[in-house]
Amino acid sequence: MKTLVILSSILGERSNSKQLADHLIARVKASNPAAIVKVRDIGAQPIPYFDGNTAGALFTPAEGRSVEQQRIVELSDSLVAELMEADRIVFAVPVYNFNLPAQFKSYLDHLARAGVTFRYTPEGVPEGLVKGKQVFVLTARGGKAEGTPSDTLTPYLRQMLGFLGMSDVTFVAAEGMAMGEVAALEGVAQAKQRIDALLAETAQTSLAA
Ligand SMILES: Cc1cc2nc3c(=O)[nH]c(=O)nc-3n(C[C@H](O)[C@H](O)[C@H](O)COP(=O)(O)O)c2cc1C
Predict the structure, then answer these.
(1) Does the predicted model carry a pTM greater than 0.85?
(2) How many other CB atoms are there within 10 angstroms of residue 74's CB atom?
(3) Residues 78 and 47 sit within 8 Å (Cβ to Cβ)
(4) Residue 179: HSE in the Cβ half-sphere, 13 Å Cα cutoff
(5) Domain total for the chain?
(6) Domain containing residue 158: CATH number
(7) 174 pairs with which residues across the strands?
């Protein structure tokens, strides 16, 4: 099983969502030292902002692209390819200003491509083409908002990932990161326990299959 991990915090080694991802990676490698895990850190190395040039390049037919447009499409192609190759995808996503980091939004904008990651059926119904993935979204937030109207990240990501075909999506939230040391430690510990339980469940399911 190939695992792709996308980190998107701007806080480097102090990142709580990265701590959750590191925990998951350690558990995956402990249970299978040969497991293939690829990590992309778009907080440290951001995907370029999705602007008019990017959209222009992606909408231009291959034969008409300038060298600069080819370079832009190659980046998008490589992001899509690594996503398609993965069996399990882990998105480590902090909450900044009520939603996901701009870096992660830009990443998603580079992935959403008609005819590549989604298409419209002859009836005009959208169909996601990134299918058969097990997806974990590991979030960290300063307050406690999961499941409340203030949590605008979870419904947005569920919608967006679902649109691209990712329907098996499980959210794990470390909450209370800015509510004092005890609350933060507790929030991270609970999230790690949940990750352990989810991985144990996955192992059981694949044994049974
Ligand atoms: C720029 C910025 C904006 C933030 N906005 C929110 C917010 O809207 N709601 C919240 O609960 N926490 C907010 N926080 C706290 C973060 O969610 C918290 O620090 C979390 O640990 C971030 O994940 P990370 O450590 O992986 O970067 C914000 C933090 C930063 C740096």
Answers:
(1) yes
(2) 11
(3) no
(4) 17
(5) 1
(6) 3.40.50.360
(7) 140
Which residue has a Cα nearest atom 1 of ligand 1?
Answer: 96
Taking all residues of the chain, what is their mean pLDDT, rounded to a whole number? 96
Pocket test for ligand 1, best of 177, 179, 188 (most atoms within 8 A of CB): 177
- Does the CB atom of residue 139 touch ligand 1 within 6 A? no
Residue 205: is its pLDDT beyond 90? Answer: no
Q: Which is the closest atom of ligand 1 to the Cα of 15?
A: 25
Give me ligand 1 centre to Cα 100, in Å.
9
8 A C-beta contact, residue 107 and residue 47:
yes
**Contact predicate 183/143, CB 8 Å:** no
Task: Report pLDDT for 209.
Answer: 64
Quote the percentage of the chain above a pLDDT of 90.
95
Q: Are strands 126-128 and 118-120 parallel, antiparallel or unpaired?
A: antiparallel
Q: For ligand 1, atom 19, which residue shows the shortest CA distance?
A: 142
Residue with tokens 């999230």: 191
CA dihedral 196, 178, 152, 53 (to 10 degrees): -100
Task: Give me ligand 1 centre to Cα 154, in Å.
Answer: 15
